[in-house]
Design brief:
about 150 residues, mainly alpha, 6 helices, about 0% strand, globular
């Protein structure tokens, strides 16, 4: 099992409940953003001088990650094969728990490394959790998002 594909699959299934237009693209953007947050966290943690990268470097980094995710998942509609594959397997693993907490943990760690106060951290992570709960409660759980069977 390719863990990165499985992460995309789980995020795709979650996002497709509320995004009916282009969930495959939104999933790629969300995954790219999380990866960029993790890269920035690592750079800050190891005291890499971010001034050398600059804001344009951050934009370039996220663009490169998005293009790689586009090539991996969206180009030639590879996401359809991934979704079909994991839909058939009906996997329940400990990775599911990791995938659920991964976005929250990414933001939490970045904010902690940046030494942002706890109130801001908990408000931001709380808003993310609230959005996730609302999407799970009111999203279309039966949506297969028209992946060719």
């Amino acid at each position: 099992m390719n863990i990165y594909n499985y992460m995309y699959y789980k995020m795709y299934k979650s996002i497709s409940r509320v995004n009916k237009i282009m969930p495959e693209f939104s999933t790629g953007v969300w995954l790219s953003t999380l990866i960029m947050i993790n890269i920035l966290s690592i750079l800050i943690l190891f005291k890499f001088p971010l001034e050398t990268i600059g804001l344009n470097g951050v934009y370039l980094g996220i663009t490169i990650i998005m293009l790689l995710n586009y090539k991996i998942f969206i180009y030639k509609e590879k996401f359809k094969t991934i979704v079909k594959e994991f839909d058939k397997e009906n996997i329940k693993t400990y990775f599911d728990y990791f995938i659920i907490i991964y976005p929250y943990l990414s933001f939490f760690l970045l904010f902690k490394i940046l030494e942002i106060d706890n109130t801001t951290i908990f408000i931001t992570v709380g808003i993310l959790i609230l959005i996730d709960i609302i999407a799970r409660l009111f999203g279309d759980s039966d949506n297969e998002n028209k992946i060719d069977k």
